[in-house]
Amino acid sequence: MSGDLLGNLLRQVSRSFYLSLAILPTALREPIGLAYLLARAADTIADTELVARKDRLAHLETVRRACGGEPADVAAVARACAPHQHRVAERKLLERLPEALARLEALAPADRHEVRAVLATLTSGMIFDLTRFPGEDEKGLAAIETLEELDHYTYMVAGCVGPFWTVLHVTHRKRLGDWALREMSEEGVSFGKALQLTNVLRDVPGDLAHGRCYLPARELAALGMGPRDLLDPAGAARALPLYRRLIGLALEHYNVGWDYTLAIPRLEWRMRLACAWPLLIGLATLADLAAHPNPLSVRTPIKISRGEVRTLLAQTTLTVWSNRALTAHAARVRARIAV
Predict the structure, then answer these.
(1) Angle at the Cα of 67 (from 62 to 72), degrees rounded to 5?
(2) Are residues 112 and 178 in the same domain?
(3) Looking at the DSSP assignment, which residues form a beta bridge with residue 212?
(4) Do 211 and 256 sit in the same domain of this protein?
(5) What count of other Cβ atoms lies within 10 Å of the Cβ of residue 114?
(6) Which position among 19, 64, 96, 325 has the lowest Cβ density within 10 Å, counted as fewest Cβ atoms?
(7) Residue 301: strand, helix, or coil
(8) Is the separation of the CB atoms in 224 and 317 below 8 Å?
(9) Cβ(274)–Cβ(180) below 8 Å
(10) For 237-244, which contacts have Cβ atoms below 8 Å and span 24 or more sequence positions?
(11) Do 108 and 179 belong to one domain?
(12) Which residues, at least 6 apart from 335, have a Cβ–Cβ distance to it below 8 Å?
């Protein structure tokens, strides 16, 4: 990972993902890091509420074309959106969008193809989000309609990363040469969906405040509710049966994600850690959500502490070669989750 673009800046905007990226073999850090940075830049544009929604959609389409290798004026996008960022790192990210795209163009052809493909899907998810939820606050609250629509959404914004991650690792790591690419890619989809469903469940109150409800309207209606009932703590409590069902769905995806992680050869310890860490952090977050009496009405997002993360990193670094130890660690966290 050379230069500040894939070093300092990536660390500042990537939150916990940087933990996984930094541990990867060198050859994988550039394509995966660039894919993350470009997706993060697009997401930042989508979230810039001081820019009119129709203009954000136009800017996203511009970035989407540029990521696909088409001529596009991304510098104009940066000029339009960067000044509105409250966080310095996000402003710098948008200002350096042309540089990131130049680095994408310089990748090996096979890596460049995979990065472009995953970015096409990720940005389609962002465009879906902006068009599916037309409001910016509670007054314009809208909901995803069905569980199938929620599943498709989690694929577009996270599940699609699983096959991308898998193909790049199989391409660059000889020890993965006997992997069944199609099967492992499908398991990778569940891996990504598990993490995104956890985000959805953690962020319900904040999303509602921004006009977005990812709890399906049809499932709420079966409980005699509508999305607006979630704005009231008492009403939100009535949706807990649905919330617990979604926790159960996330756990099913986590189980597949663990199968994926334990199938990684023991000598590929960097990849094993890069997968085990987000799964364990996500499971611990899910456990905290499940333990809360009404997670739909919290004022600050529920997340595990930095101390818990440091302990998790230390423990798994020592046990990464053992499927039994990793399985036991996950089982201890899983046992805290009642659905």
Answers:
(1) 40
(2) no
(3) 142
(4) yes
(5) 22
(6) 325
(7) coil
(8) no
(9) no
(10) 237/294, 237/296, 237/297, 239/215, 239/296, 240/294, 240/296, 242/215, 243/201, 243/204, 243/215, 243/295, 243/296, 244/290, 244/339
(11) no
(12) none
Tokens of 311: 């302990």
The domain in which residue 20 lies consists of 1-132
Residue bearing tokens 């807990």:
240
One domain, residues 321 and 307: yes
pLDDT digits (tens, 9 = 90+) for 263-285: 999 999 999 999 999 999 999 99
- Return the SS3 of 268: coil
Say if CB 78 and CB 141 are below 8 A apart.
Answer: no
CB 130 within 8 A of CB 36: no
Q: Where are the alpha helices (DSSP H) in the chain?
A: 8-14, 17-23, 26-46, 53-67, 74-81, 88-95, 97-105, 109-132, 147-154, 161-172, 181-202, 204-209, 217-222, 233-237, 240-262, 269-291, 306-319, 323-334
Matching residue, tokens 């159960």: 248
Distance from C-alpha of 255 to C-alpha of 150, rounded to nearest angstrom? 19
What is the torsional sign of CA 169, 284, 14, 297?
positive
- Please tell me whether residues 164 and 70 are part of one structural domain: no
User: With b meaning 16 or more CB within 10 Å and e meaning fewer, what string describes 294-311?
Assistant: ebbbbeeebebeeeebee
Q: pLDDT of 291-310, one tens digit each?
A: 999 999 998 999 999 999 99
User: pLDDT tens for residues 169-217?
Assistant: 999 999 999 999 999 999 999 999 999 999 999 999 999 999 999 999 9
- 276 vs 308: CA distance, rounded Å: 15
- Same domain, residue pair 96 and 6: yes
